[in-house]
Model the fold of this input.
Amino acid sequence: MTNSLVEIYRKSVSKKTRDKIYAAFLKDVMIFIRNRNVFIPAFFTGLFHRFLIKNERVEALNYIYHHGLTHYPGTYADKYKVEKLVIHQDEDFNFFNHQGERLYFKKNQTKDNALELYNSLLIEQDPDSPHKYLNPLFTAEDYVILDIGAAEGMFALNYIEVAKEVHLFEADQNWKTPLEKTFEKWKSKVEIINKFVDSTSSEHCISIDDYTLKLDSKTWDKVLVKIDIEGYEMKALEGMQILIDSGAELVFTVCTYHNHYDAGIIKDFFIKKGFTTEFTKSYLTYNGHLNKAIIRAFKPAQIKY
Done:
């Protein structure tokens, strides 16, 4: 019935008129409906904030009450401004000087798009951001880095000088050349793998266990694994049982916000495997929910990071 009404509406009302109706009224209604699990608690939290016991969730909701819906509900994001950034160009590629090194973006990407993306990456890796992959005190010295969901490669670039090896897994072919350009001077210790990481291997996918079996991974005594792959993090973990049981010193930083229940599922996975875990501070809003963003897991327990 609902689908029939939608079809009649689309046939009866021109797209131009539908766009005007959407912009004038339906857009805000749809945003509210999709994010009601954030808006409603944020409203009551803001209203009664002075009476509530303060914690990270309460403060994130109170920020949304006062500042509106945002992916990054916290004052840490306020200091990052696109207009403060300096963008450079190398032929058809935009790049930024990131910590003294060139960080390249996709070919023919507009400057505005590249600026917005780089600014959001800086917000994500602010020390107070829920999306901060690692404790700023962690150096990654002599670690083999598996960057799963590498995209532009900023995470690995932060540690490239001290890392033993870097393996960049990025299925989007449009990132291949930018990654090659960014890591050109370290190409002797960098591998770029243009496949999805999954629990099993196929034509377009590879599991980490299958990948490491082809390498001399027995010499990997310290391994850092970052996983940020749009909700498929658990699938990637399921495909690295050999690595997890290898006895190597392991540090994981894994996104848990893409699916609403991933935080609990992924934490349980690590606990059963004997890891010590911790979540980053505060929350992110994503797909209509307020979620924990990153879980860090390590073993043995005495690793300091």
About this structure: The two ends are 56 Å apart (CA to CA).
